[in-house]
Write a structure and sequence with these properties.
two-stranded antiparallel sheet, 6% strand, 71% helix, 157 residues, globular, 2 strands, mainly alpha
Length: 157
């Protein structure tokens, strides 16, 4: 278990640094880049709202709202009222935001070719399936941890 935990921390750190590199190239903060790409990804599945992003990335609504505000000021994200519920704000990427992400595609393609060259197509499909299942089981584990911490007694040391 320690080997798995250490490897996951190491992988997470490396993925974070790759994301930071794309963000730096785009001239935005890492979290802004992550939210921008998440909007693009989630938009393929339906309407995108700040709460959708927060839930998908397991971030606070306040942090997501702040990043979205900055992305809106930069002209990369557009906000619109939801026709079904005026209290909600629907998000979309502007043409400038799409152009920015598209301009990073050649670099990302080169980096991903190196990053993922350790797997063939079949292994990648298996890995992706495992990661998606691991995310779901991690959510369940977080719920159990929250329950156990909430009802536990803290031992002073």
């Amino acid at each position: 278990m320690q080997r798995l935990t250490g490897s996951l921390h190491s992988l997470s750190s490396r993925h974070h640094h790759l994301t930071q590199g794309y963000a730096a190239r785009a001239g935005i903060a890492g979290i802004q880049y992550t939210i921008l790409t998440t909007i693009r990804y989630l938009d393929t599945r339906g309407d995108v709202f700040p709460v959708t992003i927060a839930a998908h990335l397991r971030l606070t609504s306040a942090g997501v709202t702040k990043a979205i505000h900055h992305l809106t000021e930069l002209g990369l994200v557009e906000k619109a009222g939801d026709l079904d519920d005026r209290r909600r704000t629907k998000l979309s990427i502007t043409p400038a935001g799409c152009a920015l992400l598209d301009s990073l595609a050649p670099m990302q393609s080169n980096v991903n070719d190196v990053w993922l060259d350790c797997m063939n197509d079949e292994e990648f499909s298996i890995f992706l399936d495992l990661v998606e299942r691991f995310i779901k089981s991690s959510d369940r584990a977080l719920a159990v941890q929250h329950y156990l911490v909430k009802d536990s007694v803290i031992v002073a040391f």
